[in-house]
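User: Before I run my own analysis I want an independent prediction to cross-check against. Here's the chain; please return only the structure tokens and, at the end, one sentence I can use as a sanity check.
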Amino acid sequence: MFKFLTVALALTATLPGVSTTPAQLGTTLKLRSGEASRLVLIRGAQISSLEQFQSKAGLTHLRFRLSSGGRSYSAIAYQNDWTPAMRQSLESGRVDAAGVWDTFQGAPSFTLKHAVAAGTQGAASPNSTSAELLRIRGAVITPGSVQKFTARSQARHVTYTFVAEGKTYQGVMYAGTWNSAALDQLRGGRATLYGRWGTFENRPNFITTRVAP
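Assistant: Structure tokens:
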């Protein structure tokens, strides 16, 4: 047991991430024995090669590559640890990722426990960090900006632009969060938007989870 802890501490000392807790993340996590003390947060991690797969035991996991500090690592999110919302964050390509470092085939591997799109920000100021669900009332949707697109994962997402407090921003609704009613509301030209701030190509991007009149 002590040998395992020594190896784990030596491993995490050389890998990306700062120590964190579920309370600091503003969430609750399903952590196994020994994981709480090894939980770290990696800000602005780049995500690539995301795919869903089924294990021999019939469980559905996510595997991907996580890049930080100029290096790329294998990573996995186990069934019951990941949610559709976390997958949508991973599909955005850049996340603040919380998890624990392990090894796989002799190399470091990151086990994901929590993820939000990098740069999740407050509604009033896209430069202030907040993980809470935000509401933007009376957003004016730019005519003709509502467009569907297909990601590399073959998931269908929706992008649009909107004006709030006199400024123009980009918004996105990931697969699983939009439907025909949401599209009709956006195309109607005005909506109340619910979601979180993220970034795309170094610009504020409102990751929308729901729209309403």
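Sanity check: The radius of gyration is 19 Å.
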